[in-house]
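Entry: DOCK2 protein
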Amino acid sequence: FNLQLWNNYFHLAVAFITQDSLQLENFSHAKYNKIQNKYGDMRRLIGFAIRDMWYKLGQNKICFIPGMVGPILEMTLIPEVELRKATIPIFFDMMLCEYQRTGEFKKFENEIILKLDHEVEGGRGDEHYMQLFESILTECAKQHPGICSLVESFVSLVKGLLERLLDYRAVMSDESKDNRMSCTVNLL
């Protein structure tokens, strides 16, 4: 097992699918259709490959926690529904791996909270992502009763944080200082 090789693979793949020139939702409708018809959405294809390779790591997955949390989060925040549905379960697998090793998943939790703040501040994330995140992780947790309550608490924490971060991002363009201050207090 070559850790550096796998690390390079994951980082390169995430860098590929998150590059600006592949963010189809930012293009005009005509350009979007032209690219979609000619090439399809390459982000989905690469995202599925990342997911498949993640699950092939076996016991070596623990080597990538918390280091790959940020890149995987960046990938799951791409506003493409099928990509999100396919890759959000990687988070549960990361939690499960750390839990099986240490009895908790604090490294994962701390890293995702730190990275989520950065990503939402950068303009990523939306209400739909929050709902998918909650439903997918809750569903995954139901299959593992030993970790279910911990995952539900984590999901509740992240959902609350994401709600506040999205509110904060929305009011930053607001002229009212009171609204911005109220939102800042809520976030803190």
